[in-house]
Amino acid sequence: MTVQFHSERRVREIGPQPRTSEPDVSSARSGDRNWHARGSGRPSTRAASRIRRQSPTGGAIKRTLDISMALSAFVALSPLFILTALLIKLTDRGPIFYRHVRLGHGRRSFACVKFRTMVANADEVLAEHLRSSPEAAAEWASSRKLKNDPRVTAVGAVLRKLSIDELPQLINVLRGEMSMVGPRPIVFDEVPLYGADIDFYFSARPGLTGVWQVSGRSDAAYSRRVALDRRYVENWSLWTDLVVVIKTVPAVLTARNAY
Predict the structure, then answer these.
(1) Burial of 48 by CB count in 10 Å (0-12 exposed, 13-18 middle, 19+ buried)?
(2) One-letter-per-residue 3-state SS of 55-87
(3) Half-sphere exposure (CA, 13 Å, Cβ side) for 139?
(4) In this model, does residue 12 exceed pLDDT 50?
(5) Would you say the pTM of this structure is higher than 0.85?
(6) Domain residues of the chain, as ranges?
(7) Residue 4 CB: number of other CB atoms within 10 A?
């Protein structure tokens, strides 16, 4: 499969940059809007050639597996979905789900669905925490993660530890916005962190799980995450996806380096 990179004339920027916490972006519609990474540039001829040869999104075979696995997971995990929804609703008056604008294959934006794990005023809480703690600000700048995140609720901490909060992304998989395995979906302000490698990210569908998640998860530096994403795209195969899925199970059950 040939991956086509949109030229600057064929894409248009959408909206303001989304917030980095958990807003409800009900107005975000997937599949009909493209976004051009400002300053990311086009891939080199050699890099583009590698991407075309590797066919990182996997074509019809990978898509068929995504649909079958997502449907099977929905059926098998439906009791867990119901229990999680009840816990969130009984312990917090906010919404059960939240949708956040992410960037995916072909530079398209989509509304990524998760179980809500943060307080309602997460943006304000994060901003104040980063202002008052230089250590937290440095940690956030390095990995876009916080080990002691004041925004996360008690129930949310458990959901994140076990990666249950990400299960609603099965909806995104069925919609074709995500894959079962791929790079972790990113937001607008993470694009500059990828540098010249951003086109490797855009050449694959983001994944519900991926190499980064089974290679240290939140403890991995962002630069390592970028390197892992590029390596995955350059060397994609169904066998790689199978190995990642198998490794995801113990990584989740042991809650290794997750927060």
Answers:
(1) middle
(2) CCCCHHHHHHHHHHHHHHHHHHHHHHHHHHHHH
(3) 15
(4) no
(5) no
(6) 45-253
(7) 11
